[in-house]
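ABC transporter ATP-binding protein: structure, please.
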Amino acid sequence: MNAMKIENLVRDYGGGKGVFDVSFHVDQGEAFGFLGPNGAGKTTTIRHLMGFLKPKSGSCTINGLDCWRERDKVQARLGYIPGEISFFEGISGAEFLKFIAQYRGIGSQTRKEDLLERFELDPKSKIKKMSKGMKQKLGIVAAFMHDPDILILDEPTSGLDPLMQNRFIDLVAEEKKQGKTILMSSHMFEEVERTCDRIGIIRTGRMVAVDAAAALRERHTRSYTVTLENESAAEAFAADFNGVRDGLKVTVTTKQSLEEIFMNYYGGEKHDEHGAV
Ligand SMILES: Nc1ncnc2c1ncn2[C@@H]1O[C@H](COP(=O)(O)OP(=O)(O)OP(=O)(O)O)[C@@H](O)[C@H]1O
Ligand SMILES: [Mg+2]
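Here you go.
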């Protein structure tokens, strides 16, 4: 069953900006990675799913509910991390979490303490005094503490250090095991490759690929034949790279990393060694 469905979504900001005829779905219990560079249309698509924006044409549904017309119902069930987190700066993190809990109408947030501990966040300080990473952690706690079945996460790891990024990936993997439905946007190949079943790639407002992560890799299997200088070198090379030897020739089959696949679709250059675009 489709838990989330985006059909022919259009929002035209002019000058070629916006989202154009975007369609994809996320099945119940599935983790979907939404990849694309800055300005590609990830947040715009997600804001439609959250019912913050009315589609110019096309539609978004979550569990069969129209995300615009039935946004109150839709939002009540979700866990959401916005792309740009803005809080009421004057209050403390703890007060913010209390406010969110009251807004949701749930008295006790069973997972709050566990999440605060996991991300090593002390919520007592005023939000305006918090670092970027602390604010991001606060957003994570607020999104997960009521144990929602559907999670919409817009660049959830931005601002987190590598240790905390890993803790977040672990959290997402646990949620997935429990059957949660997850949409997660990212610039980072590694984190979606590690956590998501399927991946959609958006570029300048258009989907350029939607497929299983494994299928995306499979389709880009490459083989290279290398001629070595002598038999023993050929044998060693074949052993090292799991290749097939034919005399001095060794054929090695490799699967491109998702990052390489991604860059193929883009035709661009790798920007840094961490795989950010
Ligand atoms: N309210 C708006 N008015 C005009 N243009 C907008 C508006 N919101 C977004 N855009 C433009 O639409 C495009 C898509 O923006 P969006 O925020 O969806 O990108 P994104 O994929 O989330 O990027 P990032 O990775 O930087 O967060 C961008 O070119 C952006 O400048
Ligand atoms: Mg964004």
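Notes: Residues 269-277 have pLDDT under 50 and may be disordered.
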